[in-house]
Specification:
Helix content: 10-25%
CATH superfamily: 2,3-Dihydroxybiphenyl 1,2-Dioxygenase, domain 1
Shape: globular
Largest sheet: 8 strands, mixed
InterPro entries: Anthracycline_SecMetBiosynth, Glyas_Bleomycin-R_OHBP_Dase, Glyas_Fos-R_dOase_dom, VOC_core
Pfam families: Glyoxalase
Structural class: alpha/beta
Protein name: VOC family protein
Low-confidence stretches: none
CATH topology: 2,3-Dihydroxybiphenyl 1,2-Dioxygenase, domain 1
Number of helices: 5
CATH architecture: Roll
């Protein structure tokens, strides 16, 4: 299941101001210029500096991987690719132990996602409420092929008991122009989409897709003041 999210930014301090006001987050240093965001004292996300200015400014969703090596093997065997990793991250503050092991991968259509094998950091300490991760939607050109690929990786998340409370799939052209590349879109819970969009605009972001109704709530897509896309979800 999704267990963590991280945004890659050119200006982490600008990100701190934007997301701190939008979602009521507080921040603390984590590692190597990375800030951990918390809401009500519980960790909810990370803001990371881009190591290379050519890297995209994006939110990445990480899926929990109890056996990262085996999962990477299944990704390659199913037509996906491993982009980076596996790489240890950390160590955690004062423990000497790694926070975990991470990798980035892409499905056969090129949608990028992260994988996280937990060490001292298991992932979200709070979710499914305003100001926190609430949903990840995969926008893909071939939903049938996506179902086959991700079922091979994350069967329980798609088809197990209480399946898919955090993760869904839709065709790109249901929301975006057909030329939009396949991608994951991180959704944050909000109490009022219209008010949240007004705050986004005031902070220098913009609306990418106006509010629309889905089976899981009212959604709008926005970009922050550095161009990272995310969704706002009112349930």
């Amino acid at each position: 299941m999704p267990c963590w999210i991280e945004v890659q930014l050119s200006d982490v301090e600008a990100g701190r101001r934007f997301y701190g006001e939008l979602f009521g987050w507080s921040f603390e240093p984590a590692r190597e210029g990375v800030l951990w965001a918390s809401r009500k004292g519980a960790s909810v996300a990370a803001l990371a500096p881009k190591g290379d200015g050519r890297m995209p400014t994006v939110w990445t969703v990480y899926f929990a991987a109890p056996d990262l090596g085996a999962l990477l093997g299944r990704i390659r065997g199913s037509g996906g690719q491993v982009i980076t990793g596996p790489s240890p991250v950390g160590p955690g503050s004062g423990t000497g132990r790694p926070l975990g092991v991470m990798a980035l991968a892409a499905d056969p259509e090129g949608a990028v996602f992260g994988l996280w094998q937990a060490g001292t950091h298991a992932g979200f300490a709070r979710r499914h409420e305003p100001g926190t991760f609430t949903w990840a939607e995969l926008y893909t050109r071939d939903t049938g092929a996506a179902n086959d690929f991700y079922a091979h990786l994350f069967h329980d998340a798609l088809f197990g008991p209480g399946a898919a409370p955090d993760f869904g799939r839709a065709a790109v052209d249901e929301v975006f122009p057909p030329e939009m590349p396949p991608h994951f879109l991180v959704h944050f819970g909000v109490a009022d989409v219209a008010k949240a969009l007004a705050t986004v605009h005031r902070l220098g972001g913009r609306t990418q897709v106006n509010p629309f109704t889905t089976s899981y709530g009212t959604v709008a897509v926005a970009t922050d003041n550095q161009g990272a896309s995310f969704a706002l979800l009112e349930r």
